[in-house]
Amino acid sequence: xxxxxxxxxxxxxxxxxxxxxxxxxxxxxxxxxxxxxxxxxxxxxxxxxxxxxxxxxxxxxxxxxxxxxxxxxxxxxxxxxxxxxxxxxxxxxxxxxxxxxxxxxxxxxxxxxxx
Length: 115
Prior knowledge:
single chain, mainly alpha, 7 helices, 0% strand, globular
């Protein structure tokens, strides 16, 4: 599911799996394919203090992929975590939301010079 497009319904079903490995893979797949319907579930994982660390790390990545413009607000509290892995995941996720360097207004200036 994680590597093939077209399994959104199966991904959503797997989010409810009691098997932690399947649940984690479903979260990663939801992020990989930007399954917007998974957003509430993934946010709940990120904001819960009960979420297992491996699942939390997957959810952090998924949040940044599913709704990059909302990720900063969701991940802000985790940036101050005492766990280095969580902080690193948050920083990586935030870097993903910013997009490649140089895509700001400078790219539009090049287009204007062609006219």
